[in-house]
Structure to design on (518 residues):
């Protein structure tokens, strides 16, 4: 704490307001003296708790409280910004020039780039005002005059402190259909339904990283009567509740990167129009639809077409059998889970997935051709044919086999029973004997030639790094690996754990590992 007692003008409603300081955002929790120092102080709670020093107390006196024990600081009012209004932010970003720069705006599934040179602010369909320190709408009616045609608006990392201020902005944008509000801290309104007209035409909303709970989202939902896409990534959401009477028009929901209580996921089945659900990196390991028997169809999630389960803890094939109960599921992504086949080959695991999920059209973003499906289903029949015969075969397989392979009989009806000579005996070779042909490339060192290696799928990343460090003569600590696959061009996947195997990351033959170091 410094000793500068300078007292600039502080808003009368400063407590609860948002401020910026040195590129960081915070919420004012206290305004007043902090003895024995002279002058006025602001007690702030930082969005980034690592920026703070204490819990709001000084020399045994508690001036305010923080969610994090080191999330608070005392700062002089002269050193913070309380932000600017919408008009000022627009003029700072776009100026009065006829030619404005290209801007990108990202939502739950969309990244829009407007390349057309707009001739005036009045004609702009999009405004990217992230990190612009907007704190309020400004004078009444100004926004409607300034940017009346806005359809897509990015207000992420703003200094808006409450939903009422957001509504005061959106109420003047009659054509608004997409709103990005990520990384804000917004107080909930006392009567959310009173602001439904301000968001009447809104279809797409992103509120990622806002420290908002699912219960609070449902409390706010009456404001968004026609919302179709909602992204709430990285909010620390745990338990879900049924959306009773709200979000009934929702088609797309992104809950990725939240530590969900997995038993509560079924609450989302109360969304009758939900078509796309992203549950990646949520800790999911089990899902069960108890209203339907093995091989049957659940009444839950009737419209769900696409499900993303990447980077979870799914290790049991019975989870896949449960997914087969979803009546409309045609697209599934489940990379970087723990689903293994007996031979440890990722391609075999993919074949089992295809065979178990008869309606699937896309697996891990790759379309399943009719030849791929036929091959996978025939191999599946042969792979488990020996078990089928031992369980009763053509007569009536026992209930345990039927539970583990609910689609097997349908495949027998489709292709016929296998001959004993066609049956695939369980592969006995270990995962460590399954070699992957991988090419290492060096994007930050274009003069270095690519290196091709054959590595066991069971090799842990730590050993891969050790191998590279010996060959490249660089320290292991600064080494960072990612990989790309010819099946998903343009996508770069992080390899972020030294203790996991290449198999865990679904690395396959002909994949390229990108090697960078600092």
């Amino acid at each position: 704490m410094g000793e500068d007692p300078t007292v600039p003008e502080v808003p009368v409603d400063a407590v609860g307001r948002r401020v910026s300081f040195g590129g960081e955002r915070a919420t004012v929790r206290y305004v007043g003296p902090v003895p024995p120092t002279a002058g006025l102080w602001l007690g702030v709670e930082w969005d980034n708790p690592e920026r703070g020093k204490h819990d709001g107390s000084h020399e045994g006196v508690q001036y305010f409280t923080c969610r994090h024990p080191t999330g608070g600081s005392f700062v002089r009012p002269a050193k913070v910004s309380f932000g600017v209004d919408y008009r000022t932010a627009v003029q700072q970003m776009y100026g009065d020039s006829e030619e404005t720069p290209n801007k990108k705006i990202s939502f739950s599934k969309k990244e829009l780039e407007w390349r057309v040179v707009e001739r005036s602010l009045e004609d702009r369909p999009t405004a990217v005002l992230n990190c612009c320190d907007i704190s309020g709408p400004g004078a009444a009616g100004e926004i409607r005059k300034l940017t009346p045609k806005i359809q897509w608006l990015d207000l992420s990392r703003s200094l808006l402190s409450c939903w009422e201020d957001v509504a005061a902005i959106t109420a003047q944008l009659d054509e608004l259909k997409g709103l990005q509000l990520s990384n804000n801290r917004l107080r909930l309104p006392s009567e959310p339904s009173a602001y439904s007209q301000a968001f009447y035409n809104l279809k797409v909303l992103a509120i990622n990283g806002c420290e908002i709970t699912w219960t609070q989202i449902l409390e706010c939902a009456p404001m968004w009567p026609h919302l179709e896409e909602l992204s709430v990534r990285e909010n620390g959401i745990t338990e879900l509740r049924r959306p009773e009477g709200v979000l009934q028009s929702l088609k797309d929901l992104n809950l990725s990167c939240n530590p969900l209580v997995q038993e509560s996921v079924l609450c989302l089945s109360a969304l009758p129009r939900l078509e796309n659900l992203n549950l990646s990196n949520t800790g999911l390991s089990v899902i069960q639809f108890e209203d339907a028997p093995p091989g049957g169809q659940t009444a839950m999630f009737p419209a769900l077409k696409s499900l993303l389960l990447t980077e979870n803890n799914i290790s049991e094939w019975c989870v896949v059998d449960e997914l087969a109960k979803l009546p409309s599921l045609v697209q599934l992504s489940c990379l970087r889970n723990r689903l293994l086949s007996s031979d440890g080959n990722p391609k075999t695991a993919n074949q089992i997935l295809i065979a178990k999920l008869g309606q699937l059209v896309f697996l891990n973003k790759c379309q399943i051709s009719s030849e791929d499906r036929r091959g996978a289903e025939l191999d599946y029949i042969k792979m488990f044919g020996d078990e089928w015969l031992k369980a009763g075969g053509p007569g009536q397989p026992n209930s345990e086999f039927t539970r583990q392979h609910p689609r097997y009989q349908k495949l027998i009806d489709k292709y016929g029973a296998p001959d004993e000579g066609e049956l695939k005996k369980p592969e006995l070779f270990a995962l460590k004997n399954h070699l992957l042909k991988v090419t290492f490339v060096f994007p930050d060192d274009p003069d270095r030639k690519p290196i091709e290696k054959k590595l066991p799928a069971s090799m842990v990343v730590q050993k891969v790094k050790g191998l590279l460090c010996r060959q490249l003569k660089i320290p292991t600590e600064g080494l960072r690996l990612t990989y790309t696959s010819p099946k998903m061009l343009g996508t770069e996947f992080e390899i972020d754990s030294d203790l996991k195997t290449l198999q865990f990351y679904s690395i396959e033959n002909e994949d390229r590992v990108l090697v960078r170091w600092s």
